[in-house]
Specification:
The protein has 253 residues and is of the alpha/beta class. It has 2 domains: 1-37 and 167-179 and 235-248, no CATH class; 41-163, 3-Layer(aba) Sandwich (Rossmann fold). It has 9 helices and 11 strands. The strands form 2 sheets. The protein has a 6-stranded mixed β-sheet with strand order 3-8-7-4-5-6. Strand 4 (60-63), helix 3 (66-78) and strand 5 form a beta-alpha-beta unit. The model has no long low-confidence stretch (mean pLDDT 93).
Length: 253
């Protein structure tokens, strides 16, 4: 490999050309492809009923993501459950709260949101301690969230509404990339589920976040590019720094 030319990002393709990946590709004459290595599947109405969770018995719901919102309203529809207009919505961030407009008349509901951290949201929830909260989660969720609610003695019910599954990547078997970019440990799991005999060789591996970096190393792979770093807070900045050094040291042919 004399030069970095092709990159595969294990995420959905950005919706417009304003993505920093678009700028990176133009600046360094790169071919950057996007392909989600994982996808979300909702639990069925039958599976949900087996959890024995009574949606109408709850007066408030906690949303930690837009995905949780989608699957809460999906399961309500599939189980023919009417969500009361008095339901209170507690969202991890303002962006998550605004996403509720897809399903409800925003200005007519009681909606609260934090600054992006669960600790912030809990401070708001403490003013509504008498509510009975529902916490929709993924099958693979952060245990810190229910633990934090337990710590503050909230009355709440966990419900698993969706799970993360590995995507079928068989069509990539004969396609080679100079850099593979991962954003979650699930992406690494999907790589080996699809290609059990994967050998890294000269392929560079980039990861975002400490958990993803650990997953790369635990899988026996060489971690070449890691973000965030003080000099590269974003993945595209980390990639650009690496590409500039690599191409300079290996010459441009």
């Amino acid at each position: 490999m004399n030069r970095i030319r092709k990159i595969l990002v294990s995420q959905p393709e950005p919706e417009n050309n304003k993505s920093p990946y678009h700028d990176l590709a133009e600046k360094h004459n790169l071919k950057i492809d996007f392909r989600p290595f994982i996808h979300v599947e909702g639990v069925s109405a039958k599976e949900f009923r087996q959890e024995k969770v009574d949606l109408p018995a709850h007066s408030a719901v906690i949303f930690t993501s837009k995905t949780a919102i989608d699957h809460f309203f999906r399961i309500a529809e599939e189980t023919r459950t009417v969500i009361s207009e008095s339901m209170k919505y507690f969202c991890i961030s303002e962006a998550t709260a605004f996403y509720l407009q897809k399903y409800i008349v925003y200005r007519k509901r009681k909606i609260f949101y934090g600054e992006g951290k669960m600790e912030d949201l809990v401070e708001i929830m403490l003013k509504h301690k008498d509510e009975k909260f529902l916490l929709p989660l993924s099958a693979a969720h952060k245990t810190e969230i229910p633990a934090l609610l337990d710590q503050h003695k909230f009355r709440f019910t966990k419900t698993i509404l969706y799970r993360t599954e590995c995507s079928d990547l068989s069509d990539l078997a004969d396609v080679n990339y100079d850099i593979l970019v991962f954003y979650s440990p699930s992406g690494i799991k999907s790589l080996f589920q699809n290609f059990p005999n994967f050998r890294q060789n000269d392929t560079k591996i980039a990861s975002f976040g400490d958990k993803t970096a650990r997953a790369v190393i635990e899988a026996g792979l060489r971690l070449d590019i890691q973000a965030p770093q003080p000099q590269a807070p974003s993945m595209t900045m980390a990639l650009e720094n690496f590409i500039k050094d690599f191409n300079k040291n290996n010459g441009k042919k």
